[in-house]
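Quarterly update from the structural biology core.
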Amino acid sequence: MKNLFGTVLLSLLFVIAYSRKTEYSRVTVLSLESDFSPEEILLYFNQAEEAAKRHQPLWDMNIYGPILLVDPRTRALYANVPDKENVLVLKEGVYRGVLPLEVPVSNTDITWNGVHWAMLELPLPANRYDRVDLMTHELFHVAQEELGLKLRREDNNHLGQKDGRVYLRLELAALEAALKAGRYQRSEEHLRNALIFRKYRHLIYRGAQLTENSLEILEGLATYTGQMMSGRDKWEWRNYLINRISQYKDTPTYVRSFAYETTPVYGYFMQQKDYYWNKKVDGDTDLTDLFSDAFGMDTRILLQSYVRQVAKEYNVGEIEDDESKLSIANDSLVDEYRQKFFDLPHLEIRLENMNMSFDPRNLIPMDEDEGTVYPTIRLSDNWGILTVERGGALLRPDWRWIIVSEPLEITGETIMGDGWVINLNEGYFLEETLQGNYIMSKRIVP
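Predicted structure, tokenized:
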């Protein structure tokens, strides 16, 4: 994570991973060779350090810290500091090693070998602004807990439903109009309209304000921080935001990705009113209320008739037509997955200590009590590594179980199904239930 679209996706951090400590003893060494010179790697470290130091007043904190740059082809890694296990080797000013196979390569923050790292996948974006944006985004995640902003993950499956998508698209259209408006006063009118659509969406879906806010504080503020530290001037940043938001409406799913778009646009206008507005944010802040107060949005106008009238300014008819067609196709797809993961024989795996990487652009939300389908995913746990390249996997709402289709081949340390494979660790095996399903089990050692 180059044409413009590819670069935008890179800077969006559109691959997310949840990671915990792993053991280096389980590493399968692929290669220490790489196409990246120490001079290039040191340049990246220096650029991130310079940006973080220059923008230290943004959070009253220098967020520069441990960085892992990983070549996914060879899993060769480069670090700016040593690890606590003394596995990495210092050579030509860079700490080097090989990332264990069970640790997904992704743009994320990760605790590995006793250090909390910002991990980034090589190659980094060729454009310096995009590169610094991405690095400081991940560095912010490392600092986020110290800033009191580390929130738990929340699902936003309502953004996979027709009305959820319609009113998010209307909010995005108003935000795009605010960026394109010639006068700040006119921009604020569009911002208030964007918040009307947002608050109306929260009225339709119970709990949506809380779950959306959690993702905006977790990922939206990280994206805003990266963009602020990128080095773009005001007009370059504005044009960058317009390009992002105009392309985002075509993203297949919004449930895990919307915050990368909404928060930075509000932040762009917030910092023109109060440059350090972000310092008022903590783990208890409701960003919707904060933005509403700043832009003078009157909550008394949330009558459906008024919202529909405002929506006409943003081509609501066209948006609803698009979403009606998408909803019909999505309902059919969800029914297929529901049969696949509940009715037909399948494998259920309990998650114990997982690491996973996935693409948040293509997630398929099901009902709240069912979970979310990940069309592709790579997940490691105590029992081994699951790689899903097609056909999907269902992650249950509590993130404690994952379901894949029926195993088709079980040979020693490898289990294969339609579009997926598990590299099984010693001590685990599959059991068939009376219902004809399978469960991952651990051998009991006497």
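The first strand starts at residue 16 and ends at 18.
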